[in-house]
Amino acid sequence: MAKAKPRASKDKKDKGNGDYQADSIQVLKGLEAVRRRPAMYIGSVSGRGLHHLVYEVVDNSVDEALAGYCTQIDVTIHADNAITVVDNGRGIPIDIHKTEKKPGVEVALTVLHAGGKFDKSTYKVSGGLHGVGVSVVNALSEKLEVWVDRDGKRHYMAFERGETKKKLEVIGKAKGTGTTVWFKPDTKIFTETRFDYATIATRLRELAFLNKALTITLKDERKGQQKEETFFYKGGLAEFVKHLLGNRKSLHPKPIVFETTREGVVVEGAIQYDDGYNDNTFSFVNNINTHEGGTHLTGFRSALTRTINEWAKKDGLLKKEEFTLTGDDVREGLTAVLHVKVKDPQFEGQTKTKLGNSEVEGIVKSVVNDALGDFFDKSPSVARTIIAKAVSAARAREAARKARELVRKKSGLEGGLLPGKLADCSVSDPKLTELYLVEGDSAGGSAKQGRDRTFQAILPLRGKILNVQKARIDKILSNEEIRTIITAIGTGVGEGFTLDDARYHKIIIMTDADVDGAHIRTLLLTFFYKEMKFLIDAGYIYIAQPPLYRVAKGKEEFYAYEEKERDAYVKRLNNGEAGHGTVLIQRYKGLGEMNPDQLRNTTMDPARRTLLKVTMEDAFEASQLFETLMGDEVEPRRKFIEENAKFVRNLDV
């Protein structure tokens, strides 16, 4: 890093700019910018960013697989929480870079936005979003070592916190080709440094599904959790869909699959319908999970709706005077994976995971139209089963529309009136407002008294809302509590959802710290995930963290959120100067046990409260978890409880 000290001229007076001249500007060289602002490059310095380091290294290896040169990737979590990634690709180039005058491997590891993925002759398609790649991993690691097998020789380099410590040297002979990267994350950068096996396994499994010629292994060497898995799926996306389908009952024995290259874009996908009501569609571009969708997903959905409508009318399953099937109708009970490979993907959206290439929409639409039409012609019985389900969904939607209109007329919602039990706030700017969804009238009363009515709104909920995982939209909209929530938030649901209409940018679930409270929280999260998922994507959903204990002695009192914290306060009061007497410990099971002042000070005051933001890092894991916990099948839920019961704390018995 180069820094010039600002010098004030003796000949000129300061003109009110505080000596802010060109010499005041710091120039960050090499990878220092990454170390100064790591979150700009990997999203965060917590667990999410930590795991992103692994993905960056693995993605380089997967790019070799996409180019047709790599068939095996091995990932190891070592006992000291370091990571090794080995591939049998071509090996990072070791010849001298023409402009940088350094070996290619050193340039790739020490220069931002350097890599073969910018050269379309090297990688026709690549998973890299921004090209920062492995150089960022190097910058944020205490140590990083790399071995390159190439040209019959094994080469080695070593780095510390992004700086070269050992120049490239030949250390022996190599039988084949490939790259090995070992790194240990910098504890000075990351607030969390322990890798989660399940998180890494989920991503590697996903990559193996998306690249059917690729074998990926994951090994954990840490004491007490030694484990090894191999991910290889010859069936590719068809197996992916079966994995996502889980225990749900499918309407046809095999997934509908397609794979075509058109105008230089590879389009592949797999489709399977089940007897449920949810749409589980996942889209990818060059191995990147595009959870915000984009032009490829728009093309897929458009083709699906159009083809099913045409077939329904042609086969007489949908009368001319009847309604037209909507996107929601044809996607009911759908599990699908769409993967496109594009030479120059243009990403946009909040997290840069929304495809913007306009030409891709038409290509995908054409491919899916042809593939689905051909399948329906060859398998008319399956086509009729799928269409019958969509028609049934359409009739339920029509019934829901009529019920919704009736409800709006009865409740006066046509005039824009809000639910009567909503205690709204006075500020109207949604960026500044909060909505608390509170369990029970008693807690709702305390919350109303304890809130700051300027920006905090309170909506008390009575009992447990409907489990929407098992219900159609008509039944969902007939539930009074759910209708109240939808009206209060203002966005609508399903295809009519509009994020810009959200009346609050913080929607906070506040339930009791007991089993019933946890169940209500899960039901609400299930509702938001299924019907208002964009609220989660936008970061609008939060979970309040009320304290579990009040520890008091004399005039001193503390609130604890876990047992260790409680015990520490007890010890502090016993050894402190709080006077004589017994330390009183109160265990809060319900929010109603707190008076308004206590609820405000511990759970609602922005300066003192703790909120958990609900995020969705992995859409597949989220989908499967909701299906396991809230779906019709009992056995997967029983297995989940048996495997996770040991982690439960504060269970009321």
Please provide a written account of the structure.
With 653 residues, the chain is α+β, with helices and mostly antiparallel strands. The chain has three domains: 33-231, Heat Shock Protein 90 (2-Layer Sandwich), CATH 3.30.565.10; 237-400, Ribosomal Protein S5, domain 2; 419-544, 3-Layer(aba) Sandwich (Rossmann fold), CATH 3.40.50. Helices cover 36% and strands 20% of the residues.
Strand order of the largest sheet: 5-4-3-6-2-1-7-8
Question: Based on the structure given, which CATH architecture of the largest domain is correct?
Answer: 2-Layer Sandwich
Strand content: 15-25%
Text of the CATH class of the largest domain:
Alpha Beta
Point out poorly predicted stretches: 1-28, 407-416
Query: What number of domains?
Result: 3
Shape: globular
Q: What is the CA-CA span between the terminal residues?
A: 59 Å
Structural class: alpha+beta
**CATH superfamily name of the largest domain?**
Histidine kinase-like ATPase, C-terminal domain
Rounded to the nearest angstrom, the radius of gyration is 28 Å
Q: How many H/I helical runs?
A: 20
Question: Number of DSSP strands?
Answer: 23
